[in-house]
Specification:
Strand content of chain B: 5-15%
Number of strands of chain A: 5
Helix content of chain B: 55-70%
Number of strands of chain B: 6
Strand order of the largest sheet of chain A: 2-1-3-4-5
Order of helices and strands of chain A: EHEHEHEHEHHH
Oligomer: heterodimer
Strand order of the largest sheet of chain B: 2-1-3-4-5-6
Radius of gyration of chain B: 27 Å
Structural class of chain A: alpha/beta
CATH architecture of the largest domain in chain A: 3-Layer(aba) Sandwich
Number of helices of chain B: 10
Strand content of chain A: 15-25%
Largest sheet of chain B: 6 strands, parallel
CATH superfamily of the largest domain in chain A: Response regulator
Number of helices of chain A: 7
Distance between the termini of chain B: 82 Å
Number of domains of chain A: 2
Distance between the termini of chain A: 43 Å
Radius of gyration of chain A: 18 Å
Shape of chain B: rod-shaped
CATH superfamily of the largest domain in chain B: Response regulator
CATH architecture of the largest domain in chain B: 3-Layer(aba) Sandwich
Largest interface: A-B, 31 and 30 residues
CATH class of the largest domain in chain A: Alpha Beta
Structural class of chain B: alpha/beta
């Protein structure tokens, strides 16, 4: 038997909240939802309810720096950001702060919400292709910079070692 | 037809290549223009046919998919490579990204998701299997954190950094002034500038920042009068 989970919601508008609740209700293991409109109020409840998943409207969250501190205080908590498509650039800051995924309001149909929630429950991340593209760009740039040998990333060593073992 | 996305399938299993061809037959916007069964062949075919997207296996004879991706990206930077593999390994993802891949997907992917992935990489976006995306995020955070550290360090002048190192070792303003041949007033001015740049309010906070970022070490001998 899977352990039961809690889902914390911080939402501004009713249509989105209803959509999310409907999507979540179809997910196995998610047995409890709590709805909040205020971040502080939710923070008090996260500890009390032993929550492990939070779906949060980006507008209801504090700054990325404060969100990072908050997430650091609750390491078991996975944060999924919900945001307007136009605010996708802001999502990167929250992913840096520790959020494990994001979903645009406009794309938050039931199946996508379920996929995203399942991904986070399974310890995975949920990224849109646009955001993944920006992250891949940053990493690729960094990895190519490390080629000069001045600041060799650990991955370089792993790469060489594993290449040897693969062909050996 | 103009606007079709031209695909090259590189995989050493014929049945898998045939399966993919079959999948794309149902999609009018995608055209399979070539196949390759080794990495070296993939590079040659990609050079000749200049596909928009390559679906690349990792484990192939004579040249693996990562090496082939690297060569194809050098020959034709506009070509987008999606790694399509059975390997759910973090390290392969970074090898693939370093080689120039824009996608890393597992072979158990749903056909509709694969088609969406092809459109996404063609738009300049990227896709990584969710089971590996968490590691991608970790790396992104690590790089971002290093970049923030570097930019903070650049904000301090060498003179300010000298003052900060001594402060982190417990030196008072008078000691710092003697060590650096400065007036106490100059030390105080530099400290004010350090506080402003590091967004701190006290010498203790500034010292903690210096120690945390590795700019100063406690074990160094404190300055002597």
């Amino acid at each position: 038997m899977h352990p039961s989970l809690s889902v914390m919601l911080v939402l501004a508008d009713d249509p989105l909240r209803q959509r999310l609740l409907q999507a979540i209700s179809g997910i196995e293991r998610v047995t409890m939802q709590r709805i909040f409109l205020d971040f502080e109020e939710m923070t008090q409840a996260v500890d009390r309810e032993d929550a492990i998943l939070c779906l949060a409207d980006i507008h209801r969250l504090p700054s990325p720096a404060q969100t990072a501190q908050w997430l650091a205080a609750f390491p078991q908590l996975k944060l999924l950001i919900l945001h307007p498509l136009a605010a996708e650039a802001r999502v990167l800051a929250y992913l840096q702060a520790g959020a494990m995924g994001h979903l645009a309001f406009e794309q938050a149909e039931e199946q996508r919400v379920r996929d995203a929630v399942r991904s986070l429950i399974n310890g995975e991340a949920y990224l849109s292709p646009t955001i993944a593209g920006r992250i891949v760009d940053v990493i690729a740039q960094r990895l190519s910079k490390s080629k000069d040998g001045k600041e060799v990333h650990d991955l370089e060593n792993d790469y060489t070692l594993r290449k040897g073992s693969r062909h050996g | 037809m103009a606007g079709k996305i031209r695909i090259l399938i590189a995989d050493d299993h014929r049945l898998f290549r045939q399966g993919l061809r079959h999948v794309f037959e149902t999609c009018e916007q995608i055209e399979v223009v070539g196949e390759a069964e080794t990495g070296r062949q993939a590079v040659m075919v990609a050079r000749r046919l200049r596909p928009d997207v390559v679906l690349m296996d990792i484990n192939m004879p004579d040249l693996d998919g990562v090496q082939a991706t690297h060569l194809i990206s050098e020959i034709n930077p506009a070509c987008r490579v999606i790694i399509l593999t059975m390997y759910r390994r973090d390290q392969y993802v970074f090898e693939a990204i370093k080689a120039g891949a824009r996608g890393y997907l597992l072979k158990d992917i749903d056909e509709h998701q694969l088609i969406e992935a092809i459109f996404a990489v063609q738009r300049g976006e990227a896709l990584v299997d969710p089971s590996l995306a968490a590691r991608l995020l970790d790396e992104f955070r690590r790089i971002s954190s290093q970049a923030n550290t570097a930019s903070s360090q650049e904000a301090l002048s060498e003179g300010e950094m000298q003052v900060l190192r001594l402060v982190a070792q417990g030196a008072d303003n008078k000691t710092v002034a003697e060590q650096l041949n400065l007036s106490e007033r100059t030390v105080a001015n530099r400290l004010s500038e350090i506080y402003r740049k590091l967004h701190v309010n006290s010498r203790t906070q500034a010292a903690l920042v210096a120690l945390r970022k590795g700019w100063a070490k406690l074990e160094e001998d404190p300055p002597k009068k």
